[in-house]
Amino acid sequence: MNAPKRSVTTLGQFIIERQADFPYAKGELSRLLRDIGIAAKIVNREVNKAGLVDILGEMGTSNVQGEEQKKLDVFANEQFIAALGSGGECCAVASEENEELVAISTDVSKNAKYVVCIDPLDGSSNIDVNVSIGTIFSIYRRLDPNAPVTEADFLQPGVNQVAAGYIIFGSSTMLVYTTGKGVNGFTLDPSIGEFCLSHPDMKVPNSGKIYSVNEGNAMQFPQGVRDYISYCQQDDKATGRPYSSRYIGSLVADFHRNLLKGGIYIYPPTSKAPSGKLRLIYECNPLAWIVEQAGGMASDGGQRILEKKPGSLHERTPLFIGSKDMVRHAEQFLTQNRG
Questions:
Q1: Disulfide: which of 10, 42, 232, 237 matches 194 by Cβ 3.0-4.6 Å?
Q2: What's the confidence (pLDDT) of residue 268?
Q3: Residue 306 clears pLDDT 90, i.e. is over it
Q4: Distances from the Cα of 2 to the Cαs of 6, 7, 8, 9, in angstroms?
Q5: Is residue 205 part of a domain?
Q6: How far apart are CA 199 and CA 19, in angstroms?
Q7: Domains in the chain, number
Q8: What is the CATH number of the domain that holds 147?
Q9: Does residue 193 share a domain with residue 214?
Q10: Nearest-angstrom CA–CA distance, 196 and 194
Q11: Do the Cβ atoms of 35 and 83 come closer than 8 Å?
């Protein structure tokens, strides 16, 4: 007897089925999420063939952060902005790759209800060595759809997000997102060219045995962070220590692993970067909302990430994110040292 075929739910179907979650929207948010999914497929195609064409390596220019832009960085940025512009649901984009917001001035987009913050290709230093990279995005409703779009539309605290997600380009390509009703993951099936629901209602374990931090910078960390790392490395069978140190250097990849397995990702302030390095509005806020929706926690070491009020498009912040018990424990070490 043949086994019954398992039904497959595509990203498009899932978004349509969940449209009722947004009584204030009339399909615009659903179309916007589908536009992001389409751009993700285009970028995925180029990522997968990057070793075969002249798309690897440096562009010879730097982004607003002073970091060398990779060719694939620029391609991804262009593709996501083009997709968001063509759909008509987004009126402006704030990107890691652009110093100022990018207004979309087409007739169909100028009165759109949403703005998008995006890191088009996170972990781009890993492009040339075939390590997982990703995209992080965040969607907000405009403060006043009848007024010209300004930076104020982007400088909202993370609690105001209406959707957030990331795409990871790895051994398989996944899109994970939340709209405040839990977290769901979709894996790209290349045979049909569709993202299919593979990880419904994702939950991060309350604790884990993985800590992710660039220990090469340990001498620049606050004493509380160094003490917590030392705690993670101590031998204690009762608490399952020592924990495993796992650090890829690609935020999306490290976050994705810890979301599935449990763990903590730390990018603390350092003596060279006292405000931290990660960007609040298009890296930390979206991942913070995802982890909270999955039952985890995200803070800057003392304050909930989602409650921070951004002061600029490219503001940076320390980040402690992952399993709730581990983040709280790390905060305790920081508090003890402040005292």
A1: 10
A2: 97
A3: yes
A4: 12, 15, 18, 21
A5: no
A6: 19
A7: 2
A8: 3.30.540.10
A9: no
A10: 6
A11: yes
Under 8 Å CB-to-CB from 249, ≥6 apart: which residues?
Answer: 123, 125, 126, 131, 214
Its pTM stands at 0.93
pLDDT in tens, 56-68: 666 667 776 666 6
The answer to whether residue 117 sits within a structural domain is yes
In a domain, 286, yes or no: yes
The C-alpha atoms of residue 250 and residue 210 are separated, in whole angstroms, by 16
Among 199, 224, 259, the domain boundary falls at: 199
Mean pLDDT, residues 250-279 taken together? 96
Range of the domain at 302: 210-338
195 beta partners = 188
Q: What is the mean pLDDT of residues 187-197?
A: 95
Q: What φ, ψ does residue 266 adopt, rounded to 5°?
A: -125, 125
Q: Is residue 204 part of a domain?
A: no
Amino acid at 308: K
